[in-house]
Target: Glycosyltransferase
Amino acid sequence: MNKIACVIVTYNREKLMVEALRSVLSQEQAPEYVFVVDNASTDGVAETLHQTFDFDQSHLYYYRSPENLGGSAGFSRGISLALETDCNWVSISDDDAIFQPGYFVALRRAIERHPRQNVFSGSVLLPNGKHDALHREMIINGVTLTTRPVDEALYGKDFWYDIFSFVGVLLSREMLERIGLPEKNYFIRFDDFEYALRARKSGSFLNVHDAQILHKTNYTRTSIAPWKEYYVMRNRIVSLFKYSGKNLKTRWFCCRFLCRKLVAIGLFRNRWGQAFPLIRAYLSGYHDGFQGHLGRNLNYLPR
Model:
């Protein structure tokens, strides 16, 4: 029998975290184990969760980090805890991901149909009903690791793809033990990208179209925060050098990546008011990416 452990990482999203956890626990054929990893939230989520749910530490677990080490460290810690159980599979997601009815039924069926597959996922939907294109992508350049979203037309059936996000992905224990834990020192951004590159060594990923997850996010490519953009720039460069090497092509790509980010500040009116913080963030991320400096940067933390 396949046993699933579900890991949800949260930080200061009290109401969403309660909704996300309920969506897991109310599932038909729900995961055998559920882990909530709290990244030192300050909004009272710990108290609310313990008042609402019975954390018996045998089926439903709560772990609180002593400080906010970022989503990357949260996922790394959560998977590590999950592997201490006898689970065969680990599901990971953020606290703004709401599992739709039948999600785990669909994934369990997919496991039976594809016994040699190591990575499954569900389709990620936005509140407006459209698919969130940021979470299932294809690599279009194997050197620069440039990606494009999976075509919308493919979502009507199961499909194979190259890059997943940490929203609604299911990973086999066998693969996890082989490739190790996510890179905890990324803090946020591109930790899932790097992990997907590692996981690709075990083959492509299968998205199961009738497993759906609602992503209650307010993030778009035009709504950005300087502190987050630092990690986007730094971690994209670090990941590229790790998998493609530090050569003329990858250095040129990084230069172009920086230039595009700087030019975009002038193109999007909503960025003009934070132009100088964005410029500093991009330049700092560019420098630290080239130097391979990872970890939490105290100058770029949640506001």
